[in-house]
Amino acid sequence: MEQMPILLFRSLVSRSPPSSISKSKPRSPIRKKAKIENSSRGDRATMEVLPPAEILPTLAEMKARTPKPMRIAYAIRYGRLPASAAAGREDVARCVAALARTYEPDMDDLMEFPEVALKLQPGSCYLRDHDEDAHFIRADPGVIGVADGVGSWRAKGVDAAAFSRALMANARAQVDSAVPGTPVCPYKLLERAYEQTVAASTPGSSTAVIVSLSGRVLRWAYVGDSGFALFRRGRMVHRSQPQQASFNCPYQLGAWGNKVGEAAVGQIAVKDGDVLVVGSDGLFDNLFDSAIQQIVRMCGELKFSPKMVADILAGNAYCNARSNQDSPFSAASRQQQGTSFTGGKQDDITVVVAYIVS
Ligand SMILES: [Mn+2]
């Protein structure tokens, strides 16, 4: 059976609201090492992961805004209630049907270039672990950047956040000093920001993604596993493919790292109503694409703001990182190195969600 993102499940299906979880009896702190060592024994199956305090208001609002028939429908879909719970409830049956609906992206739309310019309506959530991610958002002229400082510098006594922060600060400053109305080329922006960051002898290294919207075209440049996904009518229509040298070792920008010339670049025509999700690997290593899509779809149906979507995505990634559920990280490790652990990757989680609107 399809797995429901933990927080959605708890928030919508359980009787107690998420905010009451923190009132339950105290639990021992969860450490990453212990998690990986114990995970194969399955003894964390009933472990409860507390949602991060930052997103509790969003979870409470999500619960308040989700109609009861829809909550029952989710409980049926994910096996918490029998299908018979919809008997005689036309409202519940309608919600069950809505959840089962298949969304077909209209691929012809990808080639369409109508005249009206679109803009970004953004919101973000940053849940810190070592606080080495950095990001910036400029709704006008429509630029989003996310960078993730490579943590292994920490062991060498280097500030692992230095490169990601300087890279994003330099990129943001470039955007802010540009002549208004000038379209932003993500590759050139990343290149200049990188050159400035290296010229200042900034230590460390970082993965990075920059996306820009001008007119009706979304453009991108990225190095490593900071990435993005684009959704149309509830369906993922594009997803960046992480660049990595080996398992858990992404391409990275730095004085001695990969160069901007190795960046993946591209563009895609977008439509009014599309949803863009940009994030660090703290998001993409902890939530499968299917779960991200499910959350984007549900939040769209409930008319949530981009900020709420970002909170819910980040909150689910946070809980998955600390759970014993399989994750893209554990699945990739199994595939690439034959390991058997399940669970996610405890990490900084940066999520920027932007609605593309006219
Ligand atoms: Mn990371």
UniProtKB/TrEMBL annotation:
InterPro entries assigned to the protein according to its UniProt record, in alphabetical order: PPM-type-like_dom_sf, PPM-type_phosphatase-like_dom, PPTC7
One function term, GO molecular function aspect: metal ion binding
Region (Disordered) location: 15-44
Ranges of compositional bias, category Basic residues: 24-34
Gene3D superfamilies: PPM-type phosphatase domain
Catalytic activity: O-phospho-L-threonyl-[protein] + H2O = L-threonyl-[protein] + phosphate; O-phospho-L-seryl-[protein] + H2O = L-seryl-[protein] + phosphate
Family: Belongs to the PP2C family.
Protein name: Protein phosphatase
Organism whose genome encodes this protein: Brachypodium distachyon
